[in-house]
Design goal:
The chain is an alpha+beta fold. The protein has a single domain, classed as Glutaredoxin (3-Layer(aba) Sandwich). 57% of the residues lie in helices and 11% in strands. It contains ten helices and four strands; from the N terminus they run E-H-E-H-H-H-H-H-H-H-H-E-E-H. It has a four-stranded mixed beta sheet with strand order 2-1-3-4. Helix 1 links the parallel strand 1 and strand 2. The termini are close together.
Length: 201
């Protein structure tokens, strides 16, 4: 089966938007999505990259245009459930560690689906431990277990290893996708991902 590696972190609104669209691509193309949890802040640090709001601060009209492009994407794919998190930027370290724990326990995609709701549909301050735990419980997860797992040295080490391996592979931001050795960055390259998949079928 064809496979897309999706380097993922909750911190990016574009990761949410890509996650929604890639589900459609998965259904249409009989493809496996391999979610790889990484820490966006760690990638930025390792590559000397910066988030767009910071990177383009002071550049007249640039961030305004980025917002317009995002709105076009939302409308094109009918993603009206999306809401900008009022606490943005949210430090995603705890919840992305939770993703690593969920992967170890075999329910990563369900975890991603449900935690994204708390980040970008019913947005909450998902770097506050009490808020995180309540969101986990509301989602039907074992909140107590996940909160403990997020501090587990094995989980921490796996997230660091994932992040370092991503940078080694060429990743400099989120969302990033790979089909074999072909890399695509950003939600606006998903049509290219789908185009390459159709050539491989």
């Amino acid at each position: 089966m064809k496979k897309i590696d999706f380097y993922f972190d909750f911190a990016s609104p574009n990761a949410y938007l890509s996650h929604k669209v890639i589900k459609e691509i998965k259904e249409k193309n009989d493809v496996e999505i391999n979610y790889i949890p990484v820490l966006l802040g760690g990638i930025f640090k390792a590559t000397n990259n910066k988030p767009p709001m910071e990177q383009f601060f002071g550049v007249k009209n640039k961030n305004e245009y980025q917002n317009k492009e995002m709105q076009r994407f939302i409308e094109r794919h009918d993603l009206q459930d999306f809401k900008m998190n009022p606490h943005f930027p949210v430090i995603s370290l705890q919840i992305i560690r939770g993703a690593v724990a969920a992967e170890m326990d075999g329910y990563l995609e369900d975890y991603i689906d449900k935690v994204l709701v708390h980040m970008w549909e019913e947005p909450k301050k998902m770097d506050d431990p009490e808020v995180i735990k309540a969101a986990f419980i509301e989602s039907g997860f074992d909140g107590e277990k996940l909160m403990t797992q997020m501090q587990d040295p094995e989980v921490k080490a796996k997230l660091i290893a994932n992040t370092e391996a991503a940078v080694e592979r060429g990743v400099f931001g989120i969302p990033t996708f790979f089909i074999d050795d072909e890399m695509f960055f950003g939600k606006d390259t998903l049509w290219q991902v789908e185009e390459l998949l159709s050539k491989k079928s």
